[in-house]
Amino acid sequence: MSEPRDNPRQPSAPLPDFCSLPVLFALLVVGALTVTLMWLAPGNDGDLRDYSIAVLFTSWLSILLTVALCKLRPWMQRLPWLLPYAAVWLLLVITVGVSAAVLGWIDRNLGAGLSPASGFRFVRDCVFATGLLGAGLLRYFYVVAQWQARVAAATQAQVAALQARIRPHFLFNSMNAVAALIHVDPDAAERTVENLAELFRAALGSDPASLGTLADEWALVDRYLEIEALRLGDRLRVERDIDVPADLPLPRLLLQPLVENAIRHGVQPLREGGTIRLGGRRVPGGVEIVVDNPLADAPATPGNGHGLRNVRERVRFHFGERATVSAQARDGRFIVNVFLPEAAHARTHRR
Questions:
Q1: The pTM is what?
Q2: Residue 239 CA neighbour count, 13 Å, CB half
């Protein structure tokens, strides 16, 4: 007796967001262009009244179709394979056909002369034109949806790869510090283990695409600084000047790599240590976060730029092209500025 084979359901093709203004605008433009081309075609008498009525009819149909597609999209999206697009095409053709038939019937009873004398021909032409235009428009939406899905998948994979690189380089030093503190200061050793656990829980268990808050990031930074303070002692000094809402949405583990770089390449190589300045303020158009550290002449270990590149790519992924991460050396210090545009805050906070 043969084992039953799995018959996985074909994944459905993603439909565009029919509730969005760009889709309504596209339908309005396509309808108006179609009427305009037909009005300008050779053999047409060029009656401006007929042109205005046709534009009004197609605009009303565009709004009606947008509302219907917006309401029915969740149901159609559950269909397998390319059937969602077939369902949309049928809805377009049926809606336009019924609307044309109803308009022709009302016009003939009122005698307004808004539609052609032959009701069948009017409905046939409307359905035929809708079928052709709908197929072309849906093909465009399908190609755009596939392209967006590929871009999103590639970006998610890139962000996941960048997120996988976030592994605190101070693990072995911290474990050595814990081992030394066990007999000298058990409470400090216990706090260090708890801090390490929280940092690794954030680094290994967080979703790369998810967002936390600025308060969460500062809490992780504080845990990291407490661990490094065991190793560096008074050589590590921290100044804060933060005037940014604590609920500001931020990707998880965005600031810790910047602080880690500041300590590793700025404070650690200096015999006398140094001061790290953490700042946050509102600026025109958004919010700016600053990590500022002393600039050592010869870093203890050369950097490969992964930390800064990681932050830059993740900021661009979550907040768009207007968000920037810049780094510069100035007056003996290395300054990293993270700018997050105001509009992006609202968008990411609604996710």
A1: 0.53
A2: 9
